[in-house]
Amino acid sequence: MLKKTIGFILSFFLCLSISGIQLNAQENVIQISTADELVKFADEVNQGNYSGNTDIIVNLETDIDLNGMEWTPIGIDRDHSFSGTFNGNGHTISNFKITVGSYQYTGFFGISDCDIMNLNLSGIISSDSFLNGSGADMAGSFAGYLIGGNISNCTSYVDFTFSGVQGYVIGGIAGAIENGSITYSFFDGSYYNDGISNSVHAGGICGIGANVEIINCANMADFYGLDYFGGIIGQAQGTTVIKNCFNTGTIDVGENGPFHGSCYFGGIVGTVYSSPNLIGKLTIESCYHAGEIIGHTQNDQIGALIGGVNMSTSYQNTITAYNNYYMTGDFNTIANSQRNPLNVVYINSDGESITSDEIGRSMALEDMESLAFLEEINQNGGNYVFNEDGTPLIPEKTFDITVNTSPEDAQVSFISEDNTKYSVENHQVSLPVGQYTVLIEKENYHSIREQVTITYDISTHTLNYELVLLDADYRKVEDAVAKANALDSELYKDFSGVEKAIAGVVYDLDITHQGEVNAMAKAIEDAINALEYKDADYTAVNDVIAKAEALNPEDYVDFTHVSDAIDAVVENLNITHQKEVDDMAQAILDAISELEEKPAETPSTSDNSYITCWMMIMIGAAMSLIGFVVYDYKKKLTH
Questions:
Q1: How far is CA 178 from CA 112, 155, 206, 207, 309, in A?
Q2: d(CA 242, CA 217)
Q3: How far is Cα 61 from Cα 153, in angstroms, rounded to an integer?
Q4: CATH code, domain carrying 338
Q5: What is the rounded CA–CA span in Å between residue 61 and residue 398?
């Protein structure tokens, strides 16, 4: 068994030009966009230029039509092979032709230890004459012989046609695979051999697998004219795991029949083989077979799930099987003569011993097409999706997407075009290729909502986002400033405190400074609340009061209105009451202007008081005169 060669770094740091293929020696990435570039790349590999270099990544940038070109497999032998990664990015290479027999290892890749992913193939692999292989000749759509490599998310529509085959290993995806895996890959081409088939190990996915995993794969193609065949794997060797796979293709030995008179057919596995170097440990989990199997002789070894068991009797061999199903028909789970070989133990998922008949359950085809069957197989560990037109299908492959955010604890979710929501946990989420709306949220940060496209290109599988803090909420500041601006500064004794508080506002702070922003708003409010109005101007009031006090109330008929207006004056009002103060002054002034002076006093005949007065005066004068006369007379008498 060949282990995957450890890659090495190119010893020179130049940009190589491979006849139109641009390879950056530091990035180790080759971009292929034309048929010529693809051919040149294959030529370079077959010249040994990339052998052992696991760092090379080939990206197919577009679909390529080879227009019936006779294709030389990439990797003609172990010393001239490709060890890097070939990423088809979901594109298709079509219309190639490979003549089997020209190479020991036949396929798009011949022999390789590379990883092949996201590629579709359509073409013809054929031979017009009888193929007499050595038993080590291998053919497959993507690789004749894959050692330590992996095939993922690939589909083949390749047609295999032969006129008799002997000593070959043939697989719809890979001829043989050792110490590797095939996942999310499908064969939907065809296999037709109108001649004898002798010692041909063929499988819908791979012909022979040794120490391999085949997961989420399916064969939908019909196979005609063969002798050892399994719907998924022709022959399983060593530790082989087949999980969540199905076969719906028809398996037909063909009219010519196998050369030696019998065949080994299984709906999932053709034969199980072990040797001292490859102890048999086969696991079949959550698989189903819903195709037709057609044998032609009583010697045919046909099992609904496993055709034949050929295990070493020197070692304990194990077949672990559970949650498997097969279409009701004429065959048991394992060919009748192969059901209980020596040193083979059948166990279930709990490690409990079971019989060979218990490795799968028979079910009518119409039942296998029901929603109830989908629920049943998935409930017990399967991973299928409902198919309105038949039996359940493998779900679309998902890719591990890494989402890095700053801050790290942001919540991230993806919403697909059909409104399926995928939540990101620990920066990871598995998504199928497609268009998504990504939503990134965290308290106190602006949310991000944008469209993203997840493609087969691994560069789209890492997304980086940096969230921006929300702006601080300045609404209270704005309200306080508006309130201050609405004030007339001339009404206050000292407005500078408000002006200073407004000038102290710092804008464009983020929400982490919200407390400071709130404090700015409060400072303005406090300054407004601390304002004192100027005193009202009482000058006019004082002037008119002084004018009133200068008047003699006795000179006026009625001075009470003036006195009342003065008494009505309210002292110590502020400037907001200036009009009231001015009205007080005006009221006093109006009262003064309305005063009526008393008239001057003159005698009047109609006034008896004057007559009386004059009479008294006259009487007084007369009495004085009489008294004076009497006095003078007495004085004269005495003398």
A1: 11, 20, 11, 11, 20
A2: 9
A3: 17
A4: 2.160.20.110
A5: 20
Within 8 A by CB and 6+ apart from 555, the residues are 597, 598
Amino acid, res. 400: D
Over the chain, what is the mean pLDDT? 88
Determine the distance from the C-alpha atom of residue 67 to the mean position of all C-alpha atoms in its chain, rounded to a whole number: 40
Q: Residue 572 maps to which CATH number?
A: 1.20.1270
Task: Count the alpha carbons within 13 Å of 303 in the hemisphere toward its beta carbon.
Answer: 30
pLDDT digits 0-9 by tens, 442-459: 999 999 999 999 999 888
577: pLDDT confidence band, cut at 50, 70 and 90?
Answer: very high
Tokens of 59: 């990206």
3-state class (DSSP) for residue 287? coil
Query: What is the tally of structural domains in the chain?
Result: 5
Q: Diameter of the chain by CA atoms?
A: 215
| Tally: H helices and E strands in the chain | 10, 48
Q: Does residue 328 sit in the same domain as residue 412? A: no
Same domain, residue pair 230 and 141:
yes
How far is 301 from 334, CA to CA, in rounded Å?
8
- Expressed as residue numbers, the domain containing 486 is 475-529
Whether residue 57 is contained in a domain is answered as no
> Which residues touch 299 (CB under 8 Å, ≥6 apart)?
261, 262
Q: Are residues 260 and 281 in the same domain?
A: yes
Residue 13's pLDDT band (cuts 50, 70, 90): very low
Q: Does the residue 49 lie in any domain?
A: no
